[in-house]
Design goal:
Layout: H1 13-42, E1 46-48, E2 65-67
Antiparallel strand pairs: 1-2
Length: 71
Amino acid sequence: MENSRNVFSFDGLLGFAIAVSILLIALVFLMYFAIGSQNNNATNYYDIKNEKSIKMFDKDNAKHIIDVKGV
């Protein structure tokens, strides 16, 4: 019975390094788009029209919110 103990095989140190690098690349990719999305929404303002007619429990309350950047 032969035990192959190659440290640099895909199930050894090289595989660990590849898995960690893929996870770090995915982390950088997701963080880049998360920061971009947060910056875009931080400069997107909303305005409320007819604030006196808004009821506490009403399904049409979302119609009072206007996207200022989209106008």
